[in-house]
Amino acid sequence: MAEEDSRRANDSQDKPTDNDDQYRPSEQTRPARHPATVRRYKENISVSALRLHLLLISFGTGLLDAATYSDLGIFASNQTGNTIILLVEAINRANRSSNTSPSNADVLSVGISLASFLSFGLLFGQIGVSRFVGPRTRGWLIFSTFVQAAFLFIASLLVQVGVLKVGADQRDNQTSATLTVFLLAASAGVQVAMAKSVNVKEIPTAMLTSPYVDTLIDKSLFAFRIRGKDVASRNVRLGYFAFFASGTVVGAAARAYSGTATVLWISFALRSANLFYILVAPGHTERHGKKDEKEEGEHRLEEKATTDPGDSGRAKGRRNDQGP
Where is the composition biased (Basic and acidic residues) (predicted)? Predict the structure, then answer.
């Protein structure tokens, strides 16, 4: 009898009762899993996919700088040249007795270009590298590229309908000059901040001096092969030079034969193609597997080295202790 009573008590405990429902987690209280779409936008884009993305952007940089230099004597992306122009013109204007010939550049437009570039570069650069976003996540790259394309679209549309004057007419219209430069430099600021934060050092998208020197001091510069890890950076830099120079030639020719509006629309179309490309680009493990996982690890170590060289050195020491 005692055994039967004990068995009945255990059975009654195992059977669910109406009061047990309050202790069962409801569908609403259970932690929801991120859907595949959300995970996809949070993943990092692969290094190899980013290279093609940045090369296409570099082509567009050459297009825009060729047009802005021809029209105003300034650059939308190359702020080294703008900084020099701004300082030299400031000194020349302060020294009215100077015998130097005046530049074709408008000082206000140069200042607007530099200020717009720095402002949007600061904003998007700091957001991109924050721990809440991540500079190489698909979602952030889509948003950044979309903003760049939006600035280019607005500039293209306003020039096309005649709201903003370009070429010879623009030199006599200060408002058109400043607005055009503001839009193009803002797009360039977002672009360069994105390019530098993803840590593909061979493709800065808007400057050539540093890649030139990196190529000249590359030990594998004269290596007679195109495959191999030791020549990979050299090959990427040479490709960057080719894309940038090709964009400049196409931009100068398109402006000369068809006008600046055509150059702007081509730039917008290319940036829109970049946007679509980022939508479908593979994540860092989607296509190349272990190869991209290794590249991802190397990029993380490089990023960490910039913030804490000591940790990077200790990590390198641990890898050496573990052996190959």
Answer: 1-24
